[in-house]
Amino acid sequence: MTAPTSSSRRFSFLKAFIVVALAQSSVAAVVDPAVLDACPGYSATNVKTSRSGLTAQLVLRGLACNVFGNDTERLSLSVVYETRNRIHLKITDASQARYEVPESVFPRPQAQSVPSRSSNIQFNYTVSPFSFSIYRTSTREVLFSTSSHPIIFEPQYLRVKTRLPANANIYGLGEHTNPFRLPTDNTTLTLWSRDAYGIPVGTNLYGNHPVYFEHRTTGTHGVLLLNSNGMDVKLSSGEPGGPALEYNVIGGVLDFYFFAGSENDPTQVARQYAEVAGLPAEVPYWGFGFHQCRFGYKDFVDVASVISRYAAAGIPLETMWTDIDYMDRRRIFTLDPDYFPLPRMREIVQYLHNHDQKYIVMTDPAVPYLPDEGYTPYDHGKELDIWLKAANGSESLGVVWPGVTVFPDWFHPNIQQYWTDEFLSFYSPETGLDIDGVWIDMNEPANFCNLPCDNPFEQAIEQNMPPPRTTLPPDPNAPIFVNATSSSSSELKKREDLLNPPYAINNAAGPISSRTAFVRAYTLSSL
Ligand SMILES: *[C@@H]1O[C@H](CO)[C@@H](O)[C@H](O)[C@H]1NC(C)=O
Ligand SMILES: *[C@@H]1O[C@H](CO)[C@@H](O)[C@H](O)[C@H]1NC(C)=O
Ligand SMILES: *[C@@H]1O[C@H](CO)[C@@H](O)[C@H](O)[C@H]1NC(C)=O
Ligand SMILES: *[C@@H]1O[C@H](CO)[C@@H](O)[C@H](O)[C@H]1NC(C)=O
Ligand SMILES: *[C@@H]1O[C@H](CO)[C@@H](O)[C@H](O)[C@H]1NC(C)=O
Fold this sequence. Notes:
binds 2-acetamido-2-deoxy-beta-D-glucopyranose, disordered C terminus, 17% helix, globular, alpha+beta, 8-stranded antiparallel sheet, Immunoglobulin-like, 23 strands, TIM Barrel
């Protein structure tokens, strides 16, 4: 099963209300940049240079500034020229391990190194206060430089600030609602996954990509900060020191990849980035077709009638989708027996498949907390011990659409078995819903339970979860697809073959396209 889309949007007024309630409790940290710039920074000691890199110790250079916690006294720096177009620079706490994005989640490229002199970009540094720059070998043009601002490294706060040219062309640091070319004046991009109903402007959204590409007339380069902690990346132009890009990160280590890109081909930097981040998954061919998807279909008759109406209107529908509406009380891996009964849903999927069309449904990862109800998806997860736990070892509870929920721990060794088993059983082609793709939502993970979430049961009731249905169930034997004509592209082509009409006019030249301009097959199927 493949998913042509990985992110998703929820359209419901209920959800909007919840988001507004949460927004009121958020408070942004405000700190005078002068306070940060007064921090002592570090001095490089014990610098060891090799043919393809360098290591050093960084020692706090003066009185600690302790802005958001105590400054870390000693850091380790490593710089590796990994390819001719990539420098890997890492700064970590010298005395203890800190969180790093696990290899299992983000496999790093095979360790390799090239002689620094063969590289298209170079690392340069100043001993004290320690600062570094990355410049283009051929032109000596500086691409990244921390020289105007001290590096700050505290347990829960890391800051690195680089100068930018005036009116820099910066792209990336998504997901965001800013213009593609980012405004460089007073812009903050916050990276922290959240379920952002309605895609509010200027806020953090569902996914995070801490990478930017900078395009100049002299070339295009890229910078990845491989860190999955929450962060604000600030672009500013009006500060002392000139235009700048500033990372403010709340944990982890400074793990930078600098990509040389190219002096004349802006696409190269994306290729170099893909060597580290991996290539995108290939989308199925049918993923490019016309898809129909919305929240709020009442029942199976409603879904079937949408499919029929596309056919009646002669619009080729490639794929039909259904949101959480199909579930029994919003419980994943269930079908509502009155509104979306299994035999009728199988009939719909069969109809779609018979017409070379596809079907996708939503699966939310949150699993309703239903001990002692014989609800297999909960029981099976408990048996495999894959639920996220609270500090005292009890199951960590939240509130999502079905009410009180548990959350799968995607790092648990049994998780693949759990998820695969549930999919194979519910989406069984023989006995279940034979879907062609799945729509994952709420995987941030989204949780409606407001902090401190002392009583999720009470909150589920207050928030009306699961929301009751507002229509009566349909006649279980209601006829569907009664007047439907087929609507897949290939069927339409059969119906409307303009090139070879069933009645052939007496054209002396033969077929209508013969010896003249080609008669385009302007059937709907060619759209
Ligand atoms: C932070 O530094 C202060 C002053 O040196 C010290 O008293 C305090 O114990 C430190 N706090 C932590 C959490 O290390
Ligand atoms: C490298 O850094 C040193 C010390 O800051 C500086 O003098 C030198 O000009 C830099 N080299 C390049 C090519 O930027
Ligand atoms: C920067 O943007 C913030 C948020 O939009 C705003 O409150 C602030 O006044 C702006 N500051 C400047 C100097 O424009
Ligand atoms: C464990 O902690 C949760 C809150 O995180 C609390 O609701 C629950 O009552 C605690 N369970 C026990 C047995 O202490
Ligand atoms: C089928 O078409 C007929 C004639 O247009 C119409 O009266 C009838 O309501 C349609 N049935 C369904 C289930 O759409």
